């Protein structure tokens, strides 16, 4: 390692960081790749203007990157998927500033993965200590969807753990979609077959485009669908066409675009991001209502792709009990939180204890409703 002592730097851009060095720490998680995060910043999707000011912690030794932690100074709580609006409201009602706060996550993506990018526990502990020091200049520190090992380190450093639930689909080595259906109870199997048949009978066809097969016109149509989804919910889209096009140029091997067409014209699309270990269902939209189109485009096409490519796990995104009936299973997620104000910290700790008990009960209830055959 050399004689130089490790040094910490706060970075507001990844432009000066070697993609190879960063990606060596990030591993196989595509959302942590230099290309993904840098595209978010360079296209203005996650920037100071949008309330996501990068404050990345980086640990250096002998001029080489030894550790990193994606951090953002946030002026709001949008795009996080671990909801703390009630906390911010309580601060405001007591005349205390909740924003800015410090956040470690992948912007706009509720995906689990490493947040302390380092190869040694010593480096991880340095990053945790440095992030808490930095957070002392704000109201709080929030680390969303870390690994279990990281969560233990964060709790040891004095952070509070919050539990949540997502729905994931596991590929149990199926050799076909029918083999997966055979695992389900009769009613659930029948319902999925009916949903797929109705979409096919109405004349919808599908293409699964991977990597370089996704051309400019496909990205433009997908962006149209993505924007339509946000308009339907009276919200402003987080991501831009330029961001998606950047991903298509820099990490095409991680992209799957499902394109639905009727009468020769596209009507819906869904973008998935994947590695050899996991496929992540991300963004979808349509330009006209077609019954059951969402389930086919977002779930069943992605499941078939996982079966074909032997990808063992499909993360379907945040929330959605409707996924349970379609073969997804409930999975516990977590986040870690530290609040500078002692009285609020004590109150939220008590709240999290009650909430954790509720999450445990909710998981038990969901598992009792599992769609698989009883064995």
Characterize the structure shown:
There is one protein chain. The chain is of the alpha+beta class and 375 residues long. The protein folds into 2 domains: 197 residues, 3-Layer(aba) Sandwich (Aminopeptidase), CATH 3.40.630.30; 140 residues, 3-Layer(aba) Sandwich (Aminopeptidase), CATH 3.40.630. A hairpin with a 3-residue loop joins strand 12 and strand 13. The radius of gyration is 22 Å and the shape is globular.
In terms of topology, how is this protein built?
Layout: E1 7-11, H1 19-26, H2 34-42, E2 52-54, E3 56-61, E4 64-69, E5 72-74, H3 85-93, E6 101-104, E7 117-118, H4 121-135, E8 140-144, H5 148-156, E9 160-170, H6 177-181, H7 186-201, E10 204-210, H8 216-232, H9 241-250, E11 255-262, E12 265-274, E13 278-286, H10 293-309, E14 313-318, E15 329-339, H11 342-368
Parallel strand pairs: 6-8, 13-14
Antiparallel strand pairs: 1-3, 2-5, 3-4, 4-7, 5-6, 8-15, 9-14, 9-15, 10-11, 11-12, 12-13
């Amino acid at each position: 390692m050399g004689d130089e002592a490790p040094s910490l730097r706060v970075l507001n851009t990844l432009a000066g960081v070697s993609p190879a060095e960063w990606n060596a720490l990030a591993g196989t998680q595509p959302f942590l790749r230099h290309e993904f995060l840098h595209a978010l910043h360079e296209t203005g999707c996650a920037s100071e203007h949008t309330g996501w000011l990068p404050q990345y912690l980086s640990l250096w030794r002998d001029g080489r990157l030894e550790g990193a932690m994606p951090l953002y100074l946030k002026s709001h709580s949008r795009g996080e998927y671990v909801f703390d609006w009630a906390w911010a409201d309580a601060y405001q009602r007591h005349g205390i500033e909740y924003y800015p706060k410090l956040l470690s996550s992948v912007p706009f993506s509720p995906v689990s993965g490493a947040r302390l990018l380092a190869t040694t526990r010593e480096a991880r502990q340095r990053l945790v200590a440095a992030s808490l020091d930095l957070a002392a200049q704000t109201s709080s520190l929030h680390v969303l969807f870390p690994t279990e090992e990281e969560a233990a380190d964060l709790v040891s450093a004095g952070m509070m753990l919050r539990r949540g639930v997502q729905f994931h689909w596991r590929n149990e080595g199926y050799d076909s979609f029918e083999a997966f259906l055979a695992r389900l109870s009769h009613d659930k199997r029948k319902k999925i077959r009916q949903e797929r048949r109705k979409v096919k009978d109405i004349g919808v066809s599908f293409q699964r485009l991977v990597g370089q097969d996704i051309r400019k016109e496909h990205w433009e149509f997908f962006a149209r669908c993505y924007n339509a989804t946000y308009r339907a919910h009276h919200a402003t889209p987080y991501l831009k066409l330029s961001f998606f096009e950047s991903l298509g140029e820099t990490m095409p091997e991680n992209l799957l675009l499902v394109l639905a067409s009727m009468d020769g014209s596209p009507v819906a699309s869904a973008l998935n991001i994947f590695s050899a270990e996991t496929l992540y269902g991300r963004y979808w939209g349509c330009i006209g209502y077609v019954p059951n189109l969402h389930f086919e485009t977002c779930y069943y096409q992605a499941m078939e792709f996982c079966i074909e490519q032997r990808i063992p796990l499909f993360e379907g995104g945040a929330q959605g009990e409707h996924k349970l009936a379609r073969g997804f299973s409930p999975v516990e997620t977590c986040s870690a939180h530290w609040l500078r104000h002692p009285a609020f910290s004590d109150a939220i700790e008590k709240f999290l204890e009650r909430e954790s008990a509720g999450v445990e009960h909710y998981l038990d209830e969901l598992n009792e409703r599992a769609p698989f055959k009883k064995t």
